[in-house]
Amino acid sequence: MPTTATLTHTSALARLGHALSDETRTRVLLALRTAPATPSDLADALGVSRQVMSNQLACLRGCGLVTGEPDGRRTWYRLADPRLAPALDDLLGLVLAVDPACCGPDCTCA
């Protein structure tokens, strides 16, 4: 039986939607599904500057989706809730079932 949606649930989904609305943030979340990473490792892997990565990680922390754990001079980032990784996997499955041309820059779905 589905959980009754509350304002807390609605807010959590809105934060997830906000995070996923940016391609870099989405790529960060997908990268963190498999293992924690440092900002510099994420920046290098995703091909963005360290400043961009810092801004995106701050947003994801603010949304409550990632946490940072200091380790000496480095900080390791991971998904804030272990259930987020399988949820992202499920969303990827849904995306694969949809026309990839839909809702892109040249979308004519509307």
UniProtKB/TrEMBL annotation:
GO molecular function (one): DNA binding
InterPro entries (alphabetical): ArsR-like_HTH (IPR011991), HTH_ArsR_DNA-bd_dom (IPR001845), HTH_Metal-responsive_Reg (IPR052543), WH-like_DNA-bd_sf (IPR036388), WH_DNA-bd_sf (IPR036390)
An annotated GO BP: response to lead ion
Signal peptide span: none
SMART domains named among the record's database cross-references: HTH_ARSR
Residue ranges of coiled coil: none
UniProt domain HTH arsR-type: residue ranges: 5-99
UniProt name for this protein: Transcriptional regulator
Organism per entry: Cellulomonas biazotea
